Amino acid sequence: MGLKEEFEEYAVKAKTLPETTTNENKLILYGLYKQATIGPVNTSRPGMLSPMDRAKWDAWKAVEGKSKEEAMGDYITKVKQLQEEAASA
C-alpha cells in the first residue's frame, strides 16, 4: 500500500476517534490534513470574530514547512497514537 492510500485510510479512521479527543489534537490533525492535501496555506488569516476558523488556520500554518508526504506520514502517526490512547482509556 502506498503512502497516499494509507493516508486516505487513516483519514477515514480519524472520523471514528472518540468525542473525548481534545480540540488541540483535532487541530493538529486538521493542519496536517490540509498540508497533505492542499500544501501551504493559501488563504488569509480569519478575523477575531471567527475563533474556530482562526484556530484551524493557525494549525495549518504551523505545519507549513512540511512536504505533502511528510504531512501524510505525520498524520498517520498521529491518528495511530490517538487510537492507541483511546483503546487504553
Summarize the structure.
With 89 residues, the protein is mainly α. The protein is built from four helices and no strands.
CATH architect. name: Up-down Bundle
Model regions low in confidence, pLDDT < 50 over at least 5 residues:
none
Number of helices: 4
How large is the radius of gyration? 13 Å
In total, how many beta strands? 0
The shape, in one word, is: flat
Order of helices and strands: HHHH
Can you give a write-up of this model?
The protein is mostly helical. It has a single domain, classed as Acyl-CoA Binding Protein (Up-down Bundle). Helix content is 67%, strand content 0%. It has helices spanning 3-14, 23-37, 51-62, 68-88. The longest helix is centred in the last third of the chain and has 21 residues, at 68-88. The mean pLDDT is 96.
How are the SSEs ordered, and which strands pair?
Elements: H1 3-14, H2 23-37, H3 51-62, H4 68-88
Helix pairs in contact: 1-4, 2-3, 2-4
